[in-house]
Amino acid sequence: MQEIKLNLIPNLLRLFRYLSAIILNSLTSFERSLVKGQRCIIRDSEMIHEIAKEETNAYFAELGLPYRVDETSEVPGKHIGPRRIRNLINEVLNENELRKEAHLKIINDADVITDSITHYKSIFTKQDVEKAVKDIPDPTAREQLVQQVLSSNRILELYHDDGESSKYFTTIEVRNEETRIIRIANKINNQVYYNDIYNLKSDIEGLANVSEEQKQALRHILLSTSGVRVLRGRAGTGKSYVLIKAHKLATNRGQKVIGLAPTHKAVSELRSKGYTEVYTVKGFLYNRKKIFMQDSLIVVDEAGMVGTKAYAELFRVVRNNNCQLILAGDEKQLASIERGGMFEMLSNIFGSHVLIDIRRQSENWSREAATKFAESNILSGITLLRQNKCVKFDNTLQDLN
C-alpha cells in the first residue's frame, strides 16, 4: 500500500479537477437499462454522482486506500447546516445536563450506591464507596453519604481470623446469596453418577504422552467421589489438555459430556478441541429445557469468569439433573464482569487439584520464569529474563535506543 500523508489533499484536489473535466464533457443525460429490461433517463445529478463515484473509487483503489463512496440512499438524509448543527449541540448539552442532574439525584441514595457497587463486587472498601459518589460537588455531602453507606444495617464488615479488621465490607444480601450457592453445591457434591468407573481408571493409567501430574488431575476430575471437582492452574500448565483428555475418556465409556464457558471465544476453543456439545453458560441456562442433561458430566472452562448469579442458576440446574460438575480455571486470570469470586471460594471449600508445571515453554529457564511470574514473584522472573538476554536495562530511554 502506498503511504499517504501530507500529499493527500493535493491528490484530492487533482482528482476533483479531473472529475470536473469529465462531467463538463459528458452528455446532460444518458440511458441505462433497469433489471426489468426497461429504459429510463438518468437525471444530471444522478449521472454526476455515478461518474464521480466510479472515478473516486478507482482513485482510492489506486492509492491503496480502503475508502469507497457510499451509494445514493433510497431515503434522503436531512441536510444539517452550521446553524442546525449548533442547535443540535445545544440540545445534546442540555440533555447531558439533565442526565447529570438525574444521576446526582440517584447517587444521593445510600441503598442505590450500595447496589451499584455490589452488582460488580462481592466485597468492597471505603475507597470504592468514595469513588461511587465522586460526582457529588459538595465535599460535605459526599462524606455524609459515604458514612450513610458504611453505617447501613445492610453492611457487614469483614474481619481476619485474629479479629483484626480487613477493611473490606459486603452486604447481607450478597452473603445470603453465596450461602445459598454453597448449600446447593454441597448437595451436588453428594450426588455422584459413575459410568464404567473401573475401566475409566484403567484408561487413565494407560494414557501415553501424559505426565504423571496430568494423570493425577484426570483421576481427580473423573474418579473423585465428590460431585463438585475443581481443577486449577496458571496459564500454560496444561488445563486445556487435561480437559481434552477428560472429554475423550468419558465419552469413550458412554458418559454424556457437556462443555460450558462464559464467553463465545472460550466455547469455540472447547469445540475446536473435540467437545461436541458446548454452550456459553448463559446460552445453556436459557435453553436448559431443550437440553437433555440427566446424569451428564458438566465441564465449565474459564470458571473464574462466571458470575455469582450465573453460578446460582447453574447449580440449581446441575442439582435437579443429578449431574457431576467439573470447574476448571485460574482465579488470578480475568474475573467475571458481574459480581464474582465464587470459583476461589468453591476451591477452598471443596478442594482442588492444582496443575503447577508450566508446559507451554520448552526451555527450563523460561518455564521457571513463567512460574515466578505466576507466583507474583516479579523480580525473580525479570532477573531470569535478564540473565537470558531477553530484556535490556539502561539508565535512560535514550541509552536503550
From TrEMBL:
A Pfam family that this protein carries is: AAA_30
Domain of life (superkingdom)? Bacteria
The GO molecular function terms of this record are: 5'-3' DNA helicase activity
- Output the InterPro entries linked to this UniProt entry: Coronavir_polyprotein_1ab, P-loop_NTPase
Q: What is this protein called?
A: AAA domain protein
Give the species: Orientia tsutsugamushi str. Gilliam
The root-end lineage is: Bacteria, Pseudomonadati, Pseudomonadota, Alphaproteobacteria, Rickettsiales
